[in-house]
């Protein structure tokens, strides 16, 4: 009889946990396309400061300064064409952190080494002399706000490691976010 009650209690607990899980899952709407508020909320949840949403070239961009002092730009990407004055539906985002390694640095070699060391994004040798760390996300099927925060947190962590890699002796901070 004791085993029967234990089985019923475990079964009831499982049903209760499942119902709570389902209720919580239903409460979180997936992000199915660019949503400025969701990006701002994710950055603020990660304790970013100076969060600012604006437009650049007709597309939304959100800039911020991370808790570690990195400047980041988050850009709406893969946008459907629209007539002037109509908000475009954008199916992706690109988050960018730029670094200035100095004029004497072999930027192409540095970008290649960083791409080998860190797989969370793509490092690019930019014509303006910076190295850009880019992370692209697609909203196909929707992503949860928690996933958006996790993706941005991973990028920020690699940004910190990149700064330590580029300037180990001074722990110099990265440059501003670039397009």
What structural keywords apply?
179 residues; alpha+beta; six-stranded antiparallel β-sheet; 4 helices; disordered N terminus
Question: Care to describe what's here?
Answer:
- This protein is of the alpha+beta class and 179 residues long.
- The chain has helices at residues 2-27, 36-45, 107-117, 145-166; strands at residues 49-56, 59-65, 71-79, 90-99, 122-125, 131-138.
- It has 2 domains: 1-29; 31-166, Yope Regulator, Chain: A (2-Layer Sandwich).
- A 6-stranded antiparallel sheet has the order 1-2-3-4-6-5.
- α2 (36-45) crosses α4 (145-166).
- The termini are far apart.
- The model is unreliable at 1-25 (pLDDT under 50).
What is the CATH topology of the largest domain? Yope Regulator, Chain: A
Fraction of residues in H or I helices: 25-40%
Percent of sequence in beta strands: 25-35%
Sketch the major β-sheet: 6 strands, antiparallel
Q: Total number of helical segments?
A: 4
Strands, total number: 6
Mean pLDDT: 82
Low-confidence stretches: 1-25
